[in-house]
Amino acid sequence: MFEDGLDDFALETLAVRAGQQRTAEGEHAEPIFPTSSFVFASAEEAAARFSGDQPGNIYSRFTNPTVRTFEQRLAAMEGGERCVATASGMSAILTTCMGLLKAGDHVVSSRSIFGTTTVLFNNYLTKFGVETSFVAQTDYSEWEAAIRPETRLLFLETPSNPLTEVADIARLAELAHANGALLVVDNCFCTPALQQPLKLGADIVIHSATKYLDGQGRCVGGAVVGSEEIVGGDVYAFLRSAGPTMSAFNAWVFLKGLETLSIRMRAHCESAGELAHWLESQPTVKRVYYPGLESHPQHGLAASQQRGAGGILSFELEGGQAEAWRFINATELVSITANLGDAKTTITHPATTTHGRLTAEQCAESGISDGLLRLSVGLEDVVDLKNDLARGLAAVAG
Prior knowledge:
This protein is of the alpha/beta class. The protein folds into 2 domains: 6-259, Type I PLP-dependent aspartate aminotransferase-like (Major domain) (Aspartate Aminotransferase, domain 2), CATH 3.40.640; 262-397, Aspartate Aminotransferase, domain 1. The protein has helices at 11-17, 43-51, 65-78, 89-100, 115-124, 140-146, 169-178, 191-194, 231-242, 248-259, 261-280, 299-305, 321-330, 360-366, 382-397; strands at 82-86, 106-110, 131-135, 151-157, 182-186, 204-208, 222-226, 285-289, 312-317, 335-336, 346-348, 372-376. The strands form 2 sheets. The chain has a 7-stranded mixed β-sheet, sandwiched between helices. The chain has a 5-stranded mixed β-sheet with strand order 8-9-12-11-10. The longest helix has 20 residues, at 261-280. The relative contact order is 0.12. The model has no long low-confidence stretch (mean pLDDT 95). InterPro entries: Cys/Met-Metab_PyrdxlP-dep_enz, Cys_met_metab_PP, O-succ-hSer_sulfhydrylase, PyrdxlP-dep_Trfase, PyrdxlP-dep_Trfase_major, PyrdxlP-dep_Trfase_small. Belongs to the trans-sulfuration enzymes family. MetZ subfamily. Homotetramer. Keywords: Amino-acid biosynthesis, Methionine biosynthesis, Pyridoxal phosphate, Transferase.
């Protein structure tokens, strides 16, 4: 469905309709294909499928109809030609790197990324001879100075985790392409409902489908979106051989999540904006990080390249870890968990959870203080959320 003329449909329509190919049964909802392999009509057909001379399903490690529907739908929503679905967001990053990089290559990455991504670059890609240089996300002179002749990828999250720093995607894409490199953007915080990096010049978009694409914290998955040449070539080839594969069931869950993505993201943005303004006025809050605030350094840039400020905010308390933990432990409604993008509001202390494997120096360079808390604003009533956060504020003040 929608093989041609995707530009004629709005994102909300693509989120509900794109990619579905009904079987002979005429089902309305997308079916799940929980099978490891597929049967061929003949030895000749099997050979033709394996050689690539004939399209069709072979083995669910790299061809599954439910997974393919999710891939086609997300690609359409991001404005990409091809999507490869993976077992997790981190496996999406690993698949991209292993598919596109070789020994001797170089990556320039923002420092303002998920802590585990930093660990992947520093502790594991180095084992294969790939070096990474880290730069300040919004200092474009640092990006330019870090590029070498062997630089192959520029990598960032925008907005970043957890300080919501916003980078100029078009500017970094131009810089990457002028130096023969590709720009990879982790779009987890915004999703295609709020931002489409490919249309701003990025070459690859990464997703942790675990987050907003699911929206209810049910399954783990990831995705890589881009051109047929790049994603359909070496990225897919690595997935076919190594097998960091999304399951059919998880793909079906994510398909259901995509159907309501735009509606949910509007609600997340509305509540997060109200809470950010409210927190900014509290005396025990040192600073609030949220692109929707006029106090945010990249407020104008966020407004120009995003269709909403997102559902994630961070705030820094006066004090350190003791005060941050006291705040968390005083709440009763919000969930104390490191996941984000859920219908349920979640809170975490980045310095001891998502970025806990970083050194003190790395945390300092990334702006992760002991008093910093990250809030993923869910779909509860915003008054109830304010009342719960007020318990945390009272515990810190008292």
